[in-house]
Amino acid sequence: MSNEHRFITRAQAKPPIFVGIDLGETYLTVGVVDDQGSPLSSITAQKNPDEEPENMLRLADGIVADAIRKAGVQPSAVARVGLGLPGSVDPASGNLIDPVGLNSSWEGFAIRDRFRTCQSLPVSVFHNAIAAAHGEIWVGAAKNLPSVTLLTLGSHIGCGVIFGEASIDGHSSFGIGSAHMIVNCDPDAPLCGCGQRGHLEAYISDAAIANRARQLLEQGRPSTLAKRLDRSQSLTTELLAREAAAGDSLSLEVVAETARHLGVGIVNIMNTIDPDGVLLGGTTTFGGNETPLGRQFLQWIKEEVARRSFASLVEHTVIDFAALNGDGVYLGAAGLARLAAC
């Protein structure tokens, strides 16, 4: 998180106050945020990926109360709660649809109503990628842009689209589902985690990146990765990034190929919705702007976009890394709750 988003005091806060929640696969983060997007407090707790919804509600209830106390505000000062989570929510029923990274008991769970009962506060529920995108356009890397698309990179690929103060939620709050755009229609195209073939996620997810490196190693390509794996290390994107940063040619090739596929996906987004900016967040940015490898990854992406897109789109579309990192979902969820309270 950038320095301009360090915690403020209660005296500095501009009311009303909102609570933003980021429900992830293995963690829960709660933040208390003022009307200008400045956080007063945040708390992160680890959670079991197989946690049942009711147990999760009890955990969240306690952490929300702790975060409000830590912020030094009264519960009555909180106007609304925003919850970002990895799945779609039916706007009519408030039930969770297609949860990602959560166990089957979450499917169809009445997350909006049950969470409202738990908190005794108005609650709005959002796909976590949409929440993160709103965070970036509210107080992050896109705050000077009229519209933005955020791609979150990692074990799964999320996508949030914001135009002004409006999020492109779609019928089931699924956004535009860019992770599942088809980039290869061949019958033997790589299999995506959703069960279909040729989707963008099948080329740029953590599993896809590791599989590509593994295939090259099995072909007998030399790489320092082989020495690491001989020491019983797992082939992860973190390991691959370390070896690429150290100059391993195979690892660099895999990072470059990932950038090429991601560039193709970004061109499809640009040609479809023409946003002012496309931001890259999540855990698999190879260090982002903070490392030479991350900056090279971004440059490869931009070069692929320039090769494939219209010059006018390339000229006006900002392509960069997200700024809020792990704070983006709770800040964005609080921001979307703020809009819902208006």
Verbal overview:
- The chain has 342 residues and is an alpha/beta fold.
- It has two domains: 151 residues, Nucleotidyltransferase, domain 5 (2-Layer Sandwich); 179 residues, ATPase, nucleotide binding domain (Nucleotidyltransferase, domain 5), CATH 3.30.420.
- The protein has eleven helices and twelve strands.
- Strands 3-2-1-4-7 form a five-stranded mixed beta sheet. A five-stranded mixed beta sheet has the order 10-9-8-11-12, with helices on both faces. Strands 5-6 form a two-stranded antiparallel ribbon.
- Strand 9 and strand 10 form a beta hairpin.
- It starts with 16 loop residues before the first strand and ends with a helix.
- The model has no long low-confidence stretch (mean pLDDT 91).
